[in-house]
Design goal:
With 324 residues, this protein is of the alpha/beta class. It folds into 2 domains: 141 residues, Rossmann fold; 149 residues, Rossmann fold, CATH 3.40.50. Helix content is 32%, strand content 19%.
Amino acid sequence: MATGSQTPIDNATVVWWDINRCPVPDDCNPNDVRPKIESALKNLCGSGPVTIFAMGDLHLIPREELAALTESQILMKHTELGLEGIYEDCHAWAKDHPPPSRMMLISGPGVIIHELIYYFEDEGYTFLRCYPCRDAPFLWENIMGSSLPRTLEVYDETSTDTQKTVVWWDIDSCPVPIGCDPSSIRGRIRTALDSMSVAPGPLTVYCMGNMKKIPRRQTMTAIARSGVSMIQHDFGIDQIFYPLHVWTMDNPPPATIMLISNVEGEFQGEFHDSLFDFEASGYTVIRAYPTPDNSSQEISWANILNLPTSRSKREMMSREMVGR
């Protein structure tokens, strides 16, 4: 850590950019990424030198894009596991940059670095988090803060005129928040979907996870009595692949699929491709997850890059849902 002989003369900022979870958007010039990050930091924190590391599987990045980023003095670090080694990198950088210097992490959901943030903030650093563009109603906490529906849902399950919605809820990574009535969760999800103008229709909610870890049996009972189907799986939502395909066979598009989970790794690979296939077939796919680690400040990746906010909901959800 910083020694007493060091003086914070540079007001420096280091940026660790998870380039696989937060790729350069198609409508953004790679040469503009660095100046836009610097501009956002200046607006947030004032002037000072900025060092940017782009970390990830660089084999997945187009060669021309890599060249442009390198020419703009962004340092490239190849890792097959995204932010692998960030703990060591943070400590190494901090040795030469004492507080009140700043650290910024650009990454999608599912990156758990609570201890790292708390440690450096206790030491006097400012830690900033930057996320992909997302729609606020589908943060898990916002869903749980939704009001209950004013009317009882009454739909003809045999009708072909109504669009169906299925929700797969990973209770292991998105538990019932403290202070939230478990019996109200289904209704709050319905309200949140209505607020996003999801077509009204029959709603099916599956709660998946290790039910043995739910602290109170009354919680599980209250969830089930509200009309949520409980499915015991020791590994939560990674068991969703087969039942989701079965559901789509019986429920053709247009229909809506909502995934509530904070386990990012499960939304890559073969499952990644399936989600895009569902959207291409006409399904609406929505991703909900908890607010990431509590950090000093938060900023949207789209805001940094000055992207237009009129991009379609489906496009935004697709990008953040699979980390591309």
